[in-house]
Amino acid sequence: MAQPAIVAESLTYRYGNLLAVDHISFTVERGEILGFLGPNGAGKSTTVKILTGQLRPLSGRAILLGIDVARCPKQVHSRIGVCFEQPNLYEELSGVDNLHLFARLFNIRDVDIAGLLQRVGLDGRGNDLVGHYSKGMKQRLMIARALVNRPDILFLDEPTEGLDPTSAEAIRRIIREEQERGATVFLTTHDMYEADRLCNRVAFINSGRIVALDTPHNLK
């Protein structure tokens, strides 16, 4: 049996006296879409930061694609894509330049920028300054940026939050396409309806602990 894409082993993290992540353990199989749900302050963002190497756990291990994230973060970063809820693009640059810059960070020379822009519905707008983009356009550009390195694991934080129906459906389509390609998707959301439409399994986190993990059908 293939090794899981993500293995969380008793992950723990504390902000001062606040135990934000409390010894949580779970696995995500390769090619699976896992929804990670919970209210604000439940520990979702902290868990994602641990899994993506932005925070080092106080105890436990995060293993992605067989690699310990805390020990070998660069090896992991080259194989994952991350899209945050809040835009963190260079607004004084064009969409094309944003993608070229990110590709250079990965030392990727043969990236199909035009293909990525077309895939997210931004063909014809790539030379516009990102500062002139709508929220939905920025969100789609961030999705394109997360796909530059053809990641094995894609971390998406509320990717359709606040978007118009057309933009939201375009992003859902891309998520399904990435799964069909073989990528694993870790989808952070607070919307059970969204998770029900996209996810193979759903994990609920509350007060830093996993309180339920099952298929959407079984949870309902």
Q: Could you name the key traits of this structure?
A:
about 220 residues, alpha/beta, Rossmann fold, four-stranded antiparallel β-sheet, 10 strands
Give the topology, please.
Layout: E1 6-15, E2 18-28, E3 33-37, H1 44-51, E4 59-64, E5 67-68, H2 73-77, E6 80-83, H3 95-105, H4 113-119, H5 135-146, E7 153-157, H6 165-181, E8 184-189, H7 192-198, E9 201-206, E10 209-214, H8 216-219
Parallel strand pairs: 3-8, 3-9, 6-7, 7-8
Antiparallel strand pairs: 1-2, 1-4, 4-5, 9-10
Question: How is this structure best described in words?
Answer:
The chain is α/β, with parallel strands linked by helices and 220 residues long. It has one domain: P-loop containing nucleotide triphosphate hydrolases (Rossmann fold, 3-Layer(aba) Sandwich). Helix content is 32%, strand content 28%. It has helices at 44-51, 73-77, 95-105, 113-119, 135-146, 165-181, 192-198, 216-219, and strands at 6-15, 18-28, 33-37, 59-64, 67-68, 80-83, 153-157, 184-189, 201-206, 209-214. The chain has a six-stranded mixed sheet with strand order 6-7-8-3-9-10, sandwiched between helices. Helix 5 (135-146) runs parallel beside helix 6 (165-181). It is globular. The two termini are 29 Å apart. The mean pLDDT is 93.
